[in-house]
Design brief:
With about 180 residues, this protein is α+β, with helices and mostly antiparallel strands. About 35% of the residues lie in helices and about 25% in strands.
């Protein structure tokens, strides 16, 4: 094989390898869910729903792995206020798991280095959402600790109305915001 033919074959192989690499990186970029970290304006709707506002663009986020009391339930307004305090004046990062059926991003919200989702459960201001078990390996233990310490919704024992049950009974079908 001549040197010229060898160089031509090498260049061809290199070009194919680069094309494959770019295709792989493109597929990887598409498959990785978005994550944001910035100082956004944050509007807290309730104990597990927020809106991030950046230059007029609103992005709705539902806190993954948890189900906080509805605003009309006991501790509902308290949960909203506590989440607002956790997020106030902090840089927000969202680890997005997916988009839900309402078009909201579903993920863990990090504020000032702490996981806001876990904070809400640890304070007894949200239930662990067992429907999302694969994304939420530590939440059950956090909820059990809040129950045993009788925090928030668990103050009067473990016989509480789940937010999902409250929504069904009161026909609260939409996301409300």
């Amino acid at each position: 094989m001549s040197l010229a033919k060898f160089i031509y074959q090498f260049q061809k192989l290199l070009a194919i390898s680069l094309i494959n690499l770019f295709c792989l990186l493109g597929c990887l970029a598409i498959s990785i869910p978005p994550a944001w970290a910035a100082s956004f304006a944050v509007r807290v709707f309730d104990g597990d729903n927020i809106t991030l506002i950046d230059r007029g663009i609103k992005t709705k986020v539902h806190l993954a792995c948890i189900d906080a009391p509805e605003l009309l339930q006991a501790e509902g307004e308290h949960a909203r206020k506590v989440l607002q305090n956790v997020l106030d004046d902090e840089e927000i990062a969202v680890k997005v798991f997916k988009k839900d059926k309402f078009g909201r991003y579903y993920g863990e919200v990090l504020a000032g280095g702490q996981n806001a989702n876990k904070v809400m459960v640890s304070l007894g201001l949200a239930h662990y959402d067992r429907l999302q078990e694969k994304d939420c390996p530590e939440y059950e233990a956090i909820e059990q600790k809040a129950q045993s310490d009788r925090l928030g919704i668990w103050a009067n024992g473990t016989e509480v109305i789940l937010p999902s049950q409250f929504r069904r009974e009161h026909k609260l079908l939409g996301v409300g915001y």
